[in-house]
Amino acid sequence: MAQTNQHALEWKPAIIPAIICLAINLAIFVGVAANRPEYLRDYRLNTNPDAPGYVLRGRNLLLHGAFSCRSEAPYLPDMLRTPVYPLFAGVLHLVGGAPAIYVTQALLQACSSVLVYHLVRPHFGATAAFVASAFLGTDQMLAVSNFETMSEPLFVFLVLASASCLLGSRPSPPRGHGRSWFLPTAALLTGLSILTRPAALYLPLVYVGMPLWLGVRDKQILSGVKRATLFLSLAYLPVGLWVARNYHVFSVARLTTVDANNLVYFVGAGAYQVEHGVTLEEAQEMIAEEYRLVPYAIAQNHSFAPRPVSEMDAELRAVWPMVVFKYPRALGESSLKGILKASISHNVALLAELTGREWIAPGTSSLLGCDPAAFQRLCQNGPLLVTAFIWQVLHVCLALLGASFGLSLLLSKANSERFLGPLFLAVLAYFYLTVALFGCDAFWRCRAPVLPFLYIFAGAGVVCLIGVCKRILAVLCPRAAT
Fold first, then answer.
1. Structural domain contains residue 325
2. Which of 75, 117, 417, 446 is geometrically suited to a Cys-Cys bond with 14, CB 3.0 to 4.6 A?
């Protein structure tokens, strides 16, 4: 009983960021209901072309037994998207309509903030854990994105849940063992995250370093190899089943065709944009014409394509290395631009759309240059949208500043925790690489998987900054410091 009470007390501080998170989401929900109630009645009103397709695929699978993005018969099968988020959205829509999806995604963000606290506290302290959790809970960009039928909220939650279970599976002295069900649970959650967003396809290869390292550290290499093998096997089991389904239906032994499409029409197109000074659409048209490929719009719509999926996918995979590496310098510049844009961009325009308003973009470069006209354009958006804009910009700046200080702190952790800093850094780097897959037109949505791990560094960084400030204060004003 005493252990249970102690465990509850350890989690108690995480409730505060979770409550703040829910309050932010509730405010957005009320704003949408008051200004654009029809949006809550029809999920198809979202202007993101991908959003309605997720719900439609889930509904078709549940109601008609076909994983298809067609709104009427014949429900031709689809392999562009993976099944977990469509099922998630489809079930919720059948139960409670679009509001059920948005409310559940808000709850997932709150739960994710609690999971971040759980990840950080045992290893880096309660203060770092609270700050990291607060960063996630107060992220307005994530809160606004909860009101789209897109996969990021569920994906972030699954990734954090799998990481939490994975760390909980570590053998811990003095007992010398972890909870036996944590490792297989972590593996299955990782597999589900892959089937939510294929961007996590290689994440198990990053995670598997932990059981291997622990086996070496504890001089139990065989045990470490066994645990790593179990983890990889269970993580890729559901993935393998979906690949088998795709091979049976489409003769394509792949998780999805999105990876080939992105490599050609986003990564490669980004290099073309930089090299030729054209827009994304123009770059995609240039590539399709130069390599005689199906246009991007057709490659992204299997159910309406005039040719078999296997043929289109094979053609894209045959040429992607030539497209991507044709302009190496431009490729590097495009990737860096995309990561930078995704890291600092905001979604206030989406918030304006949700509440029936129009966002007048002030221009980032103009604002940074202190152009009076840019500030006039910003003020035309009204106090609520201006506040949301300032909130998101300051949140990004504080998180990046804190993370820059936290990096050195986490990597310097000694003894049994020495591996955790590099593990979190490896996951952070992995998700930043997935941002580069969107080319130089990457935007705010692309950074969603990065944020929890960035906030882990930011939480530790704030602790570091507090310590530095205390030391400076002690030198400058000893009486005040004491």
1. no
2. 117
